[in-house]
Task: inverse folding
């Protein structure tokens, strides 16, 4: 009887050890598999969940750009240097320049484009940059010869100064050519840069 009891005890212990080993291997496999999946998820996170446009822009190479805004009297254009994201091609770089103009000056100058305006599209062909804005570009514009000239030539001068491929601009609103903003500057023909409007630094200043 004692020997049978001992055999049963040994068999029970053996079965228990086998169950323990099986459980250990299952747990180890789950942990290893989970770790691998976690690593795979981390490695592909940028592909599965790409960073938003703002983060992507922040990581992009930046380029020093000369922007033109209006002086306090709205008689001349004044330069402001700024680092903006570098576009992949001429049209993309032109878009960044226009967006910076819409954002407005940071050095005390006067904005030339209504804050509520938005650039819808931009293309460059045969030296002409075609800028397509939404309605607030005209609706929110203050009008007047000086203000309209500042708007038009801040765009033309800023694009031409930074992009040799751009010689002139044409302005559209919602995909249609506009003849004027508020009746003071004729926009039926493409606009070329006007260096006479750029305020020159004082001698010795």
Result:
């Amino acid at each position: 009887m004692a020997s049978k009891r001992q055999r049963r005890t040994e068999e029970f212990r053996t079965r228990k050890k086998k169950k323990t080993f099986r459980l250990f291997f299952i747990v180890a496999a789950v942990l290893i598999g989970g770790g691998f999946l976690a690593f795979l998820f981390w490695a592909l996170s940028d592909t599965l969940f790409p960073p938003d446009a703002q983060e992507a822009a922040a990581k992009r190479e930046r380029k020093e750009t000369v922007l033109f805004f209006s002086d306090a009297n709205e008689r001349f254009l004044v330069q402001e240097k700024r680092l903006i994201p570098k576009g992949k091609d001429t049209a993309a770089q032109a878009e960044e320049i226009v967006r910076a103009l819409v954002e407005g000056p940071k050095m005390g100058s006067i904005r030339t484009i209504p804050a509520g305006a938005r650039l819808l599209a931009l293309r460059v062909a045969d030296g002409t940059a075609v800028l397509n804005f939404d309605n607030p570009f005209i609706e929110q514009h203050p009008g007047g010869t000086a203000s309209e000239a500042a708007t038009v030539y801040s765009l033309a001068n800023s694009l031409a100064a930074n992009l040799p491929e751009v010689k002139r601009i044409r302005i559209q609103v919602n995909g249609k050519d506009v003849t004027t903003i508020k009746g003071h500057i004729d926009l039926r023909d493409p606009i070329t840069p006007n260096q006479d409007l750029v305020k020159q630094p004082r001698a010795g200043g």
Notes: The radius of gyration is 33 Å. Helices lie at 2-43, 45-48, 53-59, 90-103, 136-139, 145-162.
